[in-house]
Amino acid sequence: MPAPRVDLTIQLAPQIEVEVDEERLHHLAVKTLLLEGVAQSLELGLFITDDEGTKELNRRYRGVDEPTDVLAFGGEVEGFVSPPDQPQLRDIVISYPRAASQAQERGHSVAQEIDLLFLHGLLHLLGYEDETPKKRVRMWARQEEVLGTLE
User: Fold this and answer.
1) Which domains are delineated in the chain?
2) How much is the pTM?
3) Beta bridge partners of 71
4) Distance between CA atoms of residues 66 and 68, nearest Å
5) What is the pLDDT of residues 46-94, one digit of tens each?
């Protein structure tokens, strides 16, 4: 299967100053799509913000009034369906302070944590869920499999 085309756009909130390895994240997205058997082209947006940014989005779109480490937005927009030959737009939002804190807790770099959170968001966009223990185990196992192919 040919590799899907992934157009990745990365934006940082004005208060976030961090180096992001766009090439590595792009490779991670393409590798994940290949492993999942997805041939469709995607437009992915990654927005890195702070806890207040994820709290506002979490409250507005999920009804949860607290910050989170990663959010994923995708799916069909009501009244609009992209033709099969057109890219689908998907967005992932990461809280940089949470990524930094979790990286320290887990004993790896912030870049590795951003990779993990980006992959976690991408797997959500591909239909993985983690609301139940069984689904969480499946999703986290897939994350480890994908990350293992990159090293």
Assistant:
1) 6-150 (3.40.390.30)
2) 0.89
3) 93
4) 7
5) 999 999 999 999 999 889 999 999 999 985 434 334 445 544 568 999 9
